Structure formats: structure tokens, C-alpha cells
Amino acid sequence: MPEDFRARAVLWPKGHLYEDFSVGQVMNHHWGRTIAESDTLLFTTLTLSFNPLYSNREFARAHGHRDIVVNPLLVFNTVLGLSVEDCSEIGGPFVGVGKLTYHEPVYPGDTLISRSTTIACRVSESNPVNGIVTWHTEGFNQDDVRVIDYERSNLVRRRNPGGKAV
Amino acid sequence: MKLSSLTGRDNYFEDFKAGQVFRHARGKTVEPLENVLITNLVMNTAQGHFNEHAMQASPFKQRISYGGVNFSIIMGLASQDTGENAIAELGLDNIRLLTPVVHGDTLYAYSEVLEVKDSDRADAGEVIFRHYGVNQRDQQVFQGDRRVLLKRRSHWGGK
């Protein structure tokens, strides 16, 4: 092995480009994430999210919850975060999120997993180097109960911008 | 513990009417503390949010704050006034990120009441807010609608 490791190295790529997506494909995203109490307290305090349901266990219990409630925006950001490598890591900017529903509260110790279904793919008219892909993403807890779902669209770079638009 | 003494008295369901617009009192400067920490905490793998060296070669010349962090801060800045007396957050819609945010930018929040309506609970009603976020140059960076179930003072104000 005379050559330097850098000269021998092959990039181990991450992420997907426009041509990798097709309507109807389902992606079960990697890893999952158990939400620790410290996660939601840190998120809640750093984002100045001031409802005692997220910071005061006795207050949450007095409202019928078994523990402090995990901040819903942390639930959203975690379910989205787990979907990034499959959907948008190397693609391009975020376009928007819509039709988001919080179905069930999440509590510290719950484990979230994320799944996305591709629901639309089109080439951008204003910038044909990119496509716009829309996914329906769902987050589930450890009991397979759906806790959140939403639609997200992103610009996604095309591998072959001169190729036929699909 | 007297529950109603822990939250505001002027932000129950009965206080909101369609058409009201509020400018929230506090702003927050986005630092790596928020962007990098939360991006990594939620396992968002897009390195444009956490690799300063790679982003120096981009048109932005620096890391871009993750949009989910930006709008969580903007909704946070609006939360005391529009969600402190929430029983539950119901959903979001029409979320748009309009201007990139970088470390050092300061975010401010505005909220407009789009709709107030009864819910299926006697003790709470539903409000739809449109939240707006602007940066220190008064450029709009965010817009999004939020549905929330707010306590009625008539049921909760004395608890």
C-alpha cells in the first residue's frame, strides 16, 4: 500500500437525488430516537416555549398527563430529523410543511420512529436543475401508535438535469 | 398548587378575536447553541447546518440554521402569549421558510388571529393563529398557521 490513504479512499456517499424518488415509495427511516426528559427540557427552554405542560410535571399531571409532555415541536423536529438522510440530506432547501396533525402526546422515555411515503415528484419550472419532491411523513411511538403526520416538500437536485423530465 | 396562578390571565380562549395582530415582546439571536445543538439533538444529518468548513465553499459562506429550529424559536417567541393556556397543540399548516437564517441573526415574532371556534370540549376552544417571523433587518423569514386548543377562562380561570 504505497499510496496515501487519501489517494486510496473512495467516498461513501449519503443521501438521495431526484431520480431516486418515485410516487408511492415507502421509506422506513433509520435509527429511531428515545426522547429523554433532558431532551425536551433543553428544547423547550432554548426555544422559549412557555407552557408549563412542557416544564412542570405536577402541572402536567393535574391536566391528566402521566408525565411532562414532550414539546410537540421537538416531536416534529425529531421525526423530520430521522427522515433527512433518506429525503433531503444532499437535495436542497426546504420548501414547506403542511397538513401537520399532532395525534397523541409523547412522554419522556417514549421512542419515536419515522416513515415517509413519496406523494409527488416534479421538475422545478423556475430552476430545472432541481426537482420538487413531496413526502407524507408519519411518526410512531413504541406501541406503533401514530403520534404525528405531515407533508413536507423540498427542492431536490437532479442527478441528470438534461435528462427527460418525469 | 393553584394552576391558574402559574399562567397568564389575559390569554385564554375568550381573549382572542379574528383579525387581532400581536407583536411579541422578546427577540432571540440564533447561535450555534440553538442551531447546532438542536439539529444534532434531533439527528438531522444535513451537514450544511453543522459543517462550517464545507459551508465556507457555498454561496452562503457559512452554516445555515436549520429551518425547524428557526420556526421553533419563532413559535417559541409567540408561545407565552398564544399558547401558555393551551390544553393541546393540534396542528400546523402552510409552513413557509422565506429567508435563510445564519448564526448571529435575531428573530422576532408576530401573530395574527385567523379564526376562533368552539371545540368538542366545553372547557376549551380552538384558535388558528398565523405566526410571522422577521429578522433584524425586518425581512420576513417565516410564516405558518397553527391550530391550538386554548382553555376557557370560564372553566379554568379559577382553578
Give the secondary structure arrangement, pairings included:
The complex is a heterodimer of chains A (166) and B (159).
Chain A: H1 5-8, E1 26-28, E2 33-34, H2 37-46, H3 57-62, H4 72-87, E3 94-102, E4 111-123, E5 130-140, E6 146-157
Antiparallel strand pairs in A: 1-4, 2-4, 3-6, 4-5, 5-6
Chain B: E1 21-23, E2 28-29, H1 32-41, H2 52-55, H3 67-77, H4 79-83, E3 86-97, E4 106-118, E5 124-134, E6 140-151, H5 153-156
Can you walk me through this structure?
By secondary structure, chain A is of the alpha+beta class. Chain A has a single domain, classed as Hotdog Thioesterase (Thiol Ester Dehydrase, Chain A, Roll). Chain A contains 4 helices and 6 strands, in the order H-E-E-H-H-H-E-E-E-E. In chain A, strands 1, 2, 3, 4, 5 and 6 form a 6-stranded antiparallel sheet that branches. The termini of chain A are far apart. The model of chain A has no long low-confidence stretch (mean pLDDT 94). In chain B, strand 5 (124-134) and strand 6 form a beta hairpin. In chain B, strands 1, 2, 3, 4, 5 and 6 form a 6-stranded antiparallel sheet that branches. The relative contact order of chain B is 0.24. Chain B is of the alpha+beta class and 159 residues long. Helices cover 21% and strands 33% of the residues of chain B. The interface between A and B is large, with 44 and 45 residues.
CATH class of chain B: Alpha Beta
Query: What is the global morphology of chain A?
Result: globular
Low-confidence stretches of chain A: none
**Into how many domains do the coordinates of chain B divide?**
1
Order of helices and strands of chain B: EEHHHHEEEEH
Which homologous superfamily in CATH is the superfamily of chain B? Answer: Hotdog Thioesterase
Counting helices, strands and paired strands, the structural category of chain A is: alpha+beta
What proportion strand of chain A? 25-35%
Number of strands of chain A: 6
Q: Indicate the multimeric state.
A: heterodimer
CATH class of chain A: Alpha Beta
Estimate the mean pLDDT confidence of chain B: 97
Q: Bin the helical content of chain B.
A: 10-25%
Using only CA atoms, what is the Rg of chain B? Answer: 18 Å
Q: Helix share of residues of chain A?
A: 10-25%
Figure out the total of helices of chain B: 5
Give the SSE order of chain A as H and E letters. HEEHHHEEEE
